[in-house]
Amino acid sequence: MANFNKVLLMGNLTRDPEVRYTPKGTAIATLGLAVNRTWSTETGEKKEEVTFVDVDVWGRQAETIGQYMSKGRPIFIEGRLKLDQWDDKETGQKRSKLKVVCENFQFLGGPKGNAEVSEQAPPSSRPPQRAGRPAPPAPSQEEAPSGEGEDNIPF
User: Confidence band (pLDDT; 50, 70, 90) for 92?
Assistant: First the structure.
């Protein structure tokens, strides 16, 4: 039997990330994510619904998110679903909650506290990098094309 568990979410943080550490020293960040959906009814009325999702992030990625993210900031999360189950201490009833465990993420928007920068800055010629993977080194002046032979480009 085949299994597949993949979640892709893009939304805004509902609160500042909370970073804690396990007894062995592994970082874990808990995030609240709001994902909005808008649509129009048959009568043309605009509707909107918000889905709130709890996300757990582990290891170095948790520390990075804790350092750079804050309430209201946009983020893209790639992860998997996980069902947490426990017994309620007060009532003794079984409880459960569906969460997302982050496997990769990508920051969205501009630098912290300056959203206008992302709108005015020219787009990068490189594809965006995922957190946890080092960016390729920038070409040095000696490696950069000199502009010679640009007239021979076939397009």
Answer: confident
DSSP state, residue 119: H
Strands (E), 16-134: 18-21, 27-40, 46-58, 74-87, 94-107
pLDDT band at 140 (very low <50, low <70, confident <90, very high): very low
CATH of the domain at 22: 2.40.50.140
pTM for this predicted structure: 0.66
The range of the structural domain enclosing residue 97 comes to 7-127
Residue 150 lies inside a defined structural domain of this protein: no
Q: How far apart are CA 28 and CA 21, in angstroms?
A: 6
At position 131, the amino acid (one-letter code) is A
State the DSSP code for 88.
-
